[in-house]
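Morning. Coffee machine broken again, so started the prediction first thing and wrote up yesterday's gels while waiting. Chain of 237 residues, entered below exactly as on the submission form.
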Amino acid sequence: MNFDMLSWNLIAAAIGIAAAHTVLGPDHYLPFVMLARARGWGRTRTVIITVACGIGHVGSSILLGGLGVLTGVALSRLQGFEGLRGGIAAWALVAFGLAYTAWGVRRALRSRSGGEIHAHGGHVHIHTHGAHRHHHHQEEDTGSSTTFWTLFIVFVLGPCEPLIPLFMVPAARGRWGLAMLTASVFGVVTIALMVALVLAGAEGLRRLPLGSLERWAHSMAGAVIAASGLAVIFLGL
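Came back before lunch.
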């Protein structure tokens, strides 16, 4: 693959735009930060979940852009579809956040009426006492799985709008190698920044003692997730 001025310009643009797109988009990191704190995810689990969702986020736009080139769909039309897809993903994030908030409130009220929240080995769960003395490990495992798949689907739905023209311009000229290189650079920068921001935020929250507010951690996480979705919708972040 020959590196001409177009190649270097696209790569530089991919780095800069990916960085701005990620840092300015709270939906790229706040959901993971809050859920890592609320669910007691360890660093490894947090990174794996963030990377998986990042790959789904970037990969879906690469796939769509490639199909657009192969089928002759105009860039403007494809960007319009990406905007529509982005709106659906943002509202899905809001819906997930509100549902998680409601679940968190119910869980907090239940814990006050007889359960206690404990954290062991990076896992948060409730010990109930009295007539039903057992651990809710199965419930936590099911909840974590549901949380991951919901987040993953939302991120697959959520497009990387800035990536589409960066990918389609060289692809439309038959320079598929440059198109994939540009998309790869964009993806690596996006996912690396997502991981860095999530780990930094999660570490900061981990050091913040919530005290009596600990049992409301899930509901607070849901509220922040919903707020990040609303920020994307109304502020265009």
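The chain has one domain: 31-127+134-205+212-235. Going to sketch it on the whiteboard this afternoon.
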